[in-house]
Description:
This protein is mainly β and about 180 residues long. It has two domains: about 1-35 and about 90-170, CATH 2.40.50.140; about 55-90, no CATH class. The chain has one helix at about 155-165; strands at about 10, 25-30, 35, 55, 60, 75-80, 85-95, 100-105, 110-115, 125-130, 140-145. The two termini are about 25 Å apart. Keywords: Nucleus.
Amino acid sequence: MGDVHEGPRPRIATSHLAQHLGQRVCFVGRVEKVWPIAAPTGCSLQLQASGGCRKGSRHIPRPAPLPTAPIGLEWQTMASGSRDRPNLRTRKIHPSGKLFILSDGEGKNTTVELSEPLDEELSGVIEVVGRVTNQATIMCMSYVQFREDKSAFDLALYNEALKIIHEFPEYFPFGVTRND
Length: 180
């Protein structure tokens, strides 16, 4: 799979996955975020599976059970920040850290598989380069997070560009090799 970075690769959306099975592709999407689930304020520790968390001598009870998610994904709530201003983030992750979900410009979700667990938290818009698997997921070879602090990336406009690219392939010849 070392050849995934060599040569042209088509830019696709979720609706194009089935047409590109086994091929290297480029996919741009937003990391799927889920609304925060209320956690006890004052808890600056990661929630413990054994039942809540401790802050000093106080025991903070465990919140209500989290709902189950499809395809082996779990909801995970992390609490950080201060007692007065907690920072709650909830994200869809796989327990192994080797899967994440991106949504394209149409709001359709795509699962991205990694060969190694994530070593950083992902957020915002990400470009993934990889191969489409037989399960219509993307086996990621590399990814780049877009910096949205400078300017926001318009996924809907990007999706419109993808529609044009795929409607007129004669003007956007991906995967064509020249015989020089």
